[in-house]
Write a structure and sequence with these properties.
This protein is mainly beta. It has strands at about 5, 10-15, 20-25, 35-40, 45-50, 60, 70-75, 80-85, 90-100, 110-115, 120-124. It contains no helices and 11 strands.
Length: about 120
């Protein structure tokens, strides 16, 4: 059974940085990719970033390109999301997820493993 536990969220001023962590356990390598999504109140779940286990190709949502970086530490079984130059519109609950169905990395319906989420609030 795969378990994903996010941490690292919090309150930060605009322009600041945060690093989110996703501690993984179980057969996470059975997924095709690992990703981060976010959801703000009243909005659709939005793709943030993903990487493939094979070759570590990375993908980013348009709104975070150049500001966010996804990475992994295999020894620690942890996935990270480094977030720089944060903006108030980045405020959301951020979720770590494992893709279990082949398809677009940005399609959250293809992800069968989910963490509980961590709140990120960016003040102006």
């Amino acid at each position: 059974q795969v378990q994903l536990v996010e941490s690292g969220g919090g309150l930060v001023q605009a322009g600041g940085s945060l690093r989110l962590s996703c501690a993984t356990s179980g057969r996470t390598f059975s997924s095709y990719a690992m990703g981060w999504f976010r959801q703000a109140p009243g909005k659709e779940r939005e793709f943030v970033a993903a990487f493939t286990w094979s070759g570590f190709s990375t993908y980013y949502g348009d709104s975070v390109k150049g500001r966010f970086t996804i990475s992994r530490d295999n020894a620690k079984n942890t996935v990270y999301l480094q977030m720089n130059s944060l903006r108030p519109q980045d405020t959301a609950v951020y979720y770590c997820a494992g893709q279990t169905r082949r398809g677009a990395f940005s399609d959250y319906t293809g992800y069968g493993y989910w963490g509980q989420g961590t709140q990120v609030t960016v003040s102006s």
